[in-house]
């Protein structure tokens, strides 16, 4: 068996069609097709408890588009490390960045086996730029940095993107250490982009839906307060408007969607 087919077989063994997985349920909420029946059932149950979850997913993706547009345009960033990529959908990080800067280089990181297979097939780069895909766990920032350094020049600024991923690192000290290690590996002028669910911005049924998720799906999730999310940004300069609902981050000129219970922020390493 070739290395590639052995790797593919290993990936297939990690896929569970019997337990709802976050990447696939997120894809379902975004209107994608890459999910199983169990993901639809759990996704529908969460929606019945927390009706705005679909708006959260769409607002998060729209925030990604505006944040990368800002980074590739105004901030001149040419390198992206997108951890917790999710299943490919429309307006993926490299598409937004390479539309503005065709030479942009993007490393995608996820630990979901289906994301891995789809990303390799679909997240293909412009001729001038590069994309690569790393199968790694967010709990292991050193492995992520080492793998990313094969595609990115870590002596030049990098935008580290942690969208909807630190909420799967349940221990706040561990999450802080992950952010610290990732940010330490990139130079001054780099950026950190975060989205994170919270119970502080409304969202009826959010808490009960998270409890249901943690009892029925994987991986388990946690919400954080604004103060906890702000602590991840220690030592960084917040780009206006700071830490806000991701649906309210730099919406000028676009139609403002409903307020969602998901923080969004972009910060610069001085
Ligand atoms: C809510 S989705 C967010 C996707 C995308 N970043 C976005 O904002 O649309 C979270 C992603 O993080 C991935 N993920 C969850 N826990 C992870 C971990 N410990 N290491 C790496 N990826 C993880 C999931 O597989 C999923 O693709």
From TrEMBL:
It comes from the Bacteria. Transmembrane segments: none annotated. Its EC number is 2.1.1.-. The keyword Transferase applies. GO terms for molecular function: methyltransferase activity. Keywords: Methyltransferase, Transferase. InterPro entries: SAM-dependent_MTases_sf (IPR029063), SAM_dep_MeTrfase_SAV2177_type (IPR006764). Pfam families: Methyltransf_19. GO terms for biological process: methylation. Signal peptide: none annotated. This is SAM-dependent methyltransferase. It comes from Streptomyces tabacisoli.
